[in-house]
Amino acid sequence: MGPKNQRPELWNIFNSRINKGESIRIFPLSNWTELDVWLYIHAENIPIVPLYFAKEREVVVRGESIVLIYSKDQLLPEKRRSA
Fold first, then answer.
1. pTM score of the predicted model
2. Which terminal CB of the chain, N or C, has fewer other CB atoms within 10 Å?
3. CA separation for the pair 22, 2 (Å, rounded)
């Protein structure tokens, strides 16, 4: 039986009857929210790899957009709006 044909098991209706040749899939974190994950990381004092966070970079605000600066020579002067 392929993985796509396996029935998922939900914790609140767990059925331990497994027929010969049958398997089940269990997803213990499937009902966790992102907040649950971060609270667990905090509670267990799990170190976070620095690569997870985006590198801080210089930006300019143009109108309602935030533009990353890769090189200062790529910037064009901001057009002035008349009042």
1. 0.39
2. C
3. 10
